[in-house]
Design goal:
By secondary structure, the chain is of the alpha/beta class. The chain has five helices and six strands; from the N terminus they run E-H-E-E-H-H-E-H-E-E-H. It has one domain: CBS-domain, CATH 3.10.580.10. The protein is globular, with a radius of gyration of 17 Å. The two termini are 15 Å apart.
């Protein structure tokens, strides 16, 4: 599987993400995801239209839990994370700070992409050009279908 490149897969199932400015209000992002349940992620872009972060439905579920229930009943959450989520007003306020390196290039191996998915615990990651602009997204569903195909080929060999 090391020779499989991201460019072979990332457009198989269309897109499940959208791009918004990191300056967009969190309310706008929530409304967008609320009206588009097929979306698995909102990729944030900076003033140069380059990838700067991602907001997933689970990020918003954490936000909703803190807003409605003050995070009570949830396992311990670091206080810095609690306040980052509770105080979020703009799209850029919600994502973890390490999401900037989440993206992959079309020429990256599928192993690199899957490693990032596992390391970040995300099932959708952005595919970027060399300047950091978003070309599309790679979804776990696309990786899974390729894994089935590779498994069948190995059994036949």
């Amino acid at each position: 599987m090391n020779t499989i490149r991201v460019k072979e897969l990332y457009q198989l199932h269309g897109t499940a993400s959208t791009n918004v400015s990191e300056d967009a209000s969190l309310e706008d992002v929530i409304t967008l995801l609320g009206h588009e349940p097929r979306l698995q992620g909102v990729f944030l872009t900076d003033s140069e239209q380059k990838f700067s972060g991602v907001i997933t439905p689970m990020d918003l579920a954490k936000w909703a839990h803190i807003q409605m229930f003050d995070g009570k009943g949830r396992r311990e959450i670091p206080i810095s994370t609690f306040y980052r989520i509770a105080d979020a007003r703009k799209a850029r306020d919600l994502p973890r700070s390490d999401y900037g390196s989440l993206g992959v290039r079309e020429t990256d191996s599928l192993q690199t992409a899957l490693d990032k998915m596992l390391n970040y615990e995300e099932d959708i990651i952005p595919v970027l050009d060399n300047e950091g602009h978003i070309l599309g997204d790679l979804r776990l569903s696309e990786v899974l279908m390729k894994a089935l195909e590779v498994g069948k080929q190995r059994k036949e060999a």
